[in-house]
């Protein structure tokens, strides 16, 4: 086993076992203030400030030396398909509809719960190693995904991806799968995991099925997670078939509320943005996936923010990104907006950091994404000894534009230490399990790994 730097004794390994009252000393905040942070064993931040170590040292079970690191809130990935880690590099450089219907869906037809378990374990590992503490996931075999997330101790909103193309029998199966996930997640009694209903998109789920999804979501008081206005073809087809935009169609079906997270939004019109603002719905921006699949237009961030829409950030799945690194995503979001809309002031560094943290927590419906008293201890310690963090003229700029996930030294979610000195306890087992699971998937599909 790799002996990671600084983790040597049994006692150190106990760091990862459970929540304990923790003091982080001498850490820098993005505003360049040097502080100590203290949180208790319920995982809630109780004090942040220069004198905190003096006042609370005796109450802390663990002390982490934060010197040489910058503390930022844990990152929130508001749109992904976790287990698609197994499909990383399987189908690149294709047109979106062809990519889905000729490569992705045929392979996904061979998925089992075991694949999704290992794919989600790998996704959680990758997220922990790059500073993500919460994600909004839409995929299949979500009870297996829930097991993987529960073991990984990060936050997640889990939805079964509903794709019906109008088939009633399929819709019944999909609703049953959704209901199973909702009840299974509740039975876990985890404060970190919730469920959502996930009608895949207006082009895969017709209006009558969308309405039933919306009703179910309202009845269960859960999020509704969907794809929206990703391509021009989607918007044109919707106009032709239903005489309205996909956004108006979702609204007519009752799918737009403040519990709705819609991914992409590349081809939203200004009126669509106004409607989303009125409904309090959230848009998850996925710039890497959009650029890779050549959706042809960047999400109109200026219109969305003008209309008061909460815009968060997501990576999309590993088959269209091809990683889950939210620090990388932040940079690409900020530069993609400036480039596409030819506006150098659009989406500045501080805004993209909020997009990846507090706006994400808001979209997923929990209090978080800020390092302050009363907030959950979702904290990253980013190494200041990385070349990409030097010099430190502006910590927020370095985070948004310069660092990548490899700069994250320590990841804490809800007070629990998940990575320290870049060490995650079960990393080797996960890599082994996920690699053989990916081979197994391709073998089952008759593709030589
Ligand atoms: C939940 C479903 O969503 C599919 N999926 C993955 N990425 C995208 C995308 N960019 N657009 C639409 N669907 C996507 C998954 O492959 C799965 O079939
Ligand atoms: Zn997606």
From TrEMBL:
<keyword id="KW-0479">Metal-binding</keyword>
<dbReference type="GO" id="GO:0006556">
    <property type="term" value="P:S-adenosylmethionine biosynthetic process"/>
</dbReference>
<dbReference type="InterPro" id="IPR050287">
    <property type="entry name" value="MTA/SAH_deaminase"/>
</dbReference>
<dbReference type="GO" id="GO:0090613">
    <property type="term" value="F:5'-deoxyadenosine deaminase activity"/>
</dbReference>
<feature type="binding site">
    <location>
        <position position="81"/>
    </location>
    <ligand>
        <name>Zn(2+)</name>
    </ligand>
</feature>
<dbReference type="GO" id="GO:0046872">
    <property type="term" value="F:metal ion binding"/>
</dbReference>
<comment type="function">
    <text>Catalyzes the deamination of three SAM-derived enzymatic products, namely 5'-deoxyadenosine, S-adenosyl-L-homocysteine, and 5'-methylthioadenosine, to produce the inosine analogs. Can also deaminate adenosine. The preferred substrate for this enzyme is 5'-deoxyadenosine, but all these substrates are efficiently deaminated. Likely functions in a S-adenosyl-L-methionine (SAM) recycling pathway from S-adenosyl-L-homocysteine (SAH) produced from SAM-dependent methylation reactions.</text>
</comment>
<feature type="binding site">
    <location>
        <position position="108"/>
    </location>
    <ligand>
        <name>substrate</name>
    </ligand>
</feature>
<keyword id="KW-0862">Zinc</keyword>
<feature type="binding site">
    <location>
        <position position="230"/>
    </location>
    <ligand>
        <name>substrate</name>
    </ligand>
</feature>
<protein>
    <recommendedName>
        <fullName>5'-deoxyadenosine deaminase</fullName>
        <ecNumber>3.5.4.41</ecNumber>
        <ecNumber>3.5.4.31</ecNumber>
        <ecNumber>3.5.4.4</ecNumber>
        <ecNumber>3.5.4.28</ecNumber>
    </recommendedName>
</protein>
<feature type="domain" description="Amidohydrolase-related">
    <location>
        <begin position="71"/>
        <end position="417"/>
    </location>
</feature>
<dbReference type="GO" id="GO:0050270">
    <property type="term" value="F:S-adenosylhomocysteine deaminase activity"/>
</dbReference>
<feature type="binding site">
    <location>
        <position position="79"/>
    </location>
    <ligand>
        <name>Zn(2+)</name>
    </ligand>
</feature>
<dbReference type="Pfam" id="PF01979">
    <property type="entry name" value="Amidohydro_1"/>
</dbReference>
<keyword id="KW-0378">Hydrolase</keyword>
<comment type="similarity">
    <text>Belongs to the metallo-dependent hydrolases superfamily. MTA/SAH deaminase family.</text>
</comment>
<feature type="binding site">
    <location>
        <position position="316"/>
    </location>
    <ligand>
        <name>substrate</name>
    </ligand>
</feature>
<dbReference type="InterPro" id="IPR006680">
    <property type="entry name" value="Amidohydro-rel"/>
</dbReference>
<dbReference type="GO" id="GO:0004000">
    <property type="term" value="F:adenosine deaminase activity"/>
</dbReference>
<feature type="binding site">
    <location>
        <position position="227"/>
    </location>
    <ligand>
        <name>Zn(2+)</name>
    </ligand>
</feature>
<feature type="binding site">
    <location>
        <position position="200"/>
    </location>
    <ligand>
        <name>substrate</name>
    </ligand>
</feature>
<dbReference type="InterPro" id="IPR023512">
    <property type="entry name" value="Deaminase_MtaD/DadD"/>
</dbReference>
<comment type="pathway">
    <text>Amino-acid biosynthesis; S-adenosyl-L-methionine biosynthesis.</text>
</comment>
<comment type="subunit">
    <text>Homotetramer.</text>
</comment>
<dbReference type="InterPro" id="IPR032466">
    <property type="entry name" value="Metal_Hydrolase"/>
</dbReference>
<dbReference type="InterPro" id="IPR011059">
    <property type="entry name" value="Metal-dep_hydrolase_composite"/>
</dbReference>
<feature type="binding site">
    <location>
        <position position="316"/>
    </location>
    <ligand>
        <name>Zn(2+)</name>
    </ligand>
</feature>
<dbReference type="GO" id="GO:0090614">
    <property type="term" value="F:5'-methylthioadenosine deaminase activity"/>
</dbReference>
């Amino acid at each position: 086993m790799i002996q990671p730097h600084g983790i040597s004794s049994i006692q150190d390994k106990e760091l990862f076992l459970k929540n304990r009252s923790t003091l982080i000393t001498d850490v820098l905040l993005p505003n360049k203030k040097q502080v100590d942070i203290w949180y208790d064993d319920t995982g809630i931040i109780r004090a942040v400030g220069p004198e905190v170590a003096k006042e609370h040292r005796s109450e802390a079970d663990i002390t982490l030396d934060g010197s040489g690191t910058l503390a930022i809130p844990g990152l929130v990935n508001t749109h992904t398909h976790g287990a698609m880690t197994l499909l990383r590099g399987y189908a690149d450089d294709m047109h979106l509809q062809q990519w889905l219907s000729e490569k992705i869906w045929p392979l996904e037809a061979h998925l089992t719960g075991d694949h999704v378990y290992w794919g989600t374990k790998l996704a959680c590992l990758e997220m922990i190693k790059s500073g993500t503490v919460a994600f909004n996931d839409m995929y299949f075999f979500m009870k297996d995904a829930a097991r993987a997330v529960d073991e990984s101790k990060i936050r997640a909103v889990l939805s079964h991806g509903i794709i019906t193309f109008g088939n009633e029998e399929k819709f019944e199966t999909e609703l049953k799968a959704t209901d199973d996930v909702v009840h299974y997640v509740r039975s876990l009694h985890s404060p970190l995991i919730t469920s959502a209903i996930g009608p895949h998109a207006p082009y895969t789920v017709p209006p009558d099925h969308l309405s039933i999804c919306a009703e179910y979501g309202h009845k269960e008081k859960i999020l509704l997670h969907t794809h929206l206005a990703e391509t021009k073809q989607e918007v044109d087809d919707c106009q032709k078939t239903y005489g309205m935009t996909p956004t108006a169609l979702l609204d007519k079906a009752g799918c737009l509320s403040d519990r709705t997270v819609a991914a992409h939004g590349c081809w939203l019109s200004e009126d669509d943005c106004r409607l989303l603002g009125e409904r309090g719905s959230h848009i998850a921006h996925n710039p890497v996936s959009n650029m890779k699949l050549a959706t042809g237009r960047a999400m109109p961030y200026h219109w969305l923010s003008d209309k008061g829409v909460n815009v968060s950030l997501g990576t999309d799945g590993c088959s269209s990104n091809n990683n889950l690194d939210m620090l990388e995503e932040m940079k690409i979001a900020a530069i993609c907006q400036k480039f596409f809309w030819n506006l150098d002031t659009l989406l500045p560094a501080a805004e993209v950091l909020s997009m990846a943290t507090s706006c994400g927590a808001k979209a997923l419906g929990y209090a978080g994404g800020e390092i302050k008293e009363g907030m959950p201890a979702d904290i990253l310690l980013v190494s200041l000894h990385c070349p990409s963090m030097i010099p430190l003229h502006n910590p927020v700029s370095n985070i948004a534009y310069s660092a990548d996930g490899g700069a994250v030294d320590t990841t804490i979610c809800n007070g629990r230490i998940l990575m320290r000195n870049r060490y995650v306890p079960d990393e080797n087992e996960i890599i082994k399990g996920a690699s053989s699971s990916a081979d197994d998937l391709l073998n089952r599909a008759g593709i030589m790994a």
